[in-house]
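STRUCTURE REQUEST FORM
Protein name: Rieske domain-containing protein
Source organism: Streptosporangium carneum
Requested output: structure tokens
Priority: standard
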Amino acid sequence: MRHPSGNPSLDTVDGLLRLGLRDRWYALCPAGQVRRGELVRLDRVGEELLIWRDAAGTVHVQEDRCPHRGARLSQGVHMGDRIACNYHGLQIDDEGVVVSVPGVPGCALEGKRALRTFPALEHAGAVFAWFGDQEDAEPAPFQPPEQLVDPEWDGFLAYVEWDAPWVYSLDNLMDPMHGAFLHRKSHTMSTGKREALFQIRDTPTGFVFEKTDQAGVNFDWSEWIDTDMHWVRLSIPYPATAGPGGPFTIVCTATPINETQHAAFFWRTRKVTGWQRDSWRFLYKARLEPRHWEVLEQDRVMEEAMPLDAWSRENLYQHDLAIVRLRRMLGGEARRQLRAREAR
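Status: completed
Returned output:
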């Protein structure tokens, strides 16, 4: 059985690894990119998408394809609670139902659900959607890490689009050792050892990859979290000059745009309340944010320069245990999804 999108790449293990597993939530874009009255077109996880808000401001994610002739609905007309295709005027609502065919009133298309619509929501300043392997599959509960839920945590979202496969960012995030080298001039990662031994510690939602002889000094651990969405959580030590509050925790996720590009989301968070929150937010915007963008730029340059066949010529060692484990997990899930699809 082929995937509902018709994209043949999603019918192979390699394609799912390059374009993203199904039955997962993915972050699509910052919420501010989707303004009322506008139609936004995005390519994400092997799908061509239309994103828009209805008159109440609720965000909707659908195929960017008119069910009549396949024209781009993103080139259509926003009508508040529906979209009108600019080619022949078909009107489709937020559930993918054709509500009007102006050229042929009473047409059999009217009242038919003919456009794939993806469960969607907004959270922590971003738009998320559920990409089920079956078109009408119920989404799993949306479960972000506590830093994006607990009101005692505050943060800022940094969003990037890079010209590299999304798995390069996953590898990078699950590789704490690169902080001591690539980011050695960073204000938060300039100290600590440049050699280490690591261990893997299982958690209910994934695993932690951590240094055995150093903690709270540099980029010393990463946590892989799978709650029917892929998250990475890590902690970066903060100097006293960064103001009050707990450890600086980054919550990350990455979403394929296509096989060679991806979007990445970095929520920079800190557990702070009251006046301490106000103080930290001021210091972050005034002093710290540009430094954090410098670190992301170092990652971007490194990832975009890597060849697309980098995996095929690697020589991995002990520091790469988390990468090996993660790739096996993703590959195993891709094979499981394809077997389940074939059995239906």
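Reviewer notes: Residues 146-332 form a domain with the Naphthalene 1,2-dioxygenase Alpha Subunit; Chain A, domain 1 fold (CATH 3.90.380.10). The CA atoms of residues 121 and 128 lie 5 Å apart.
Form closed.
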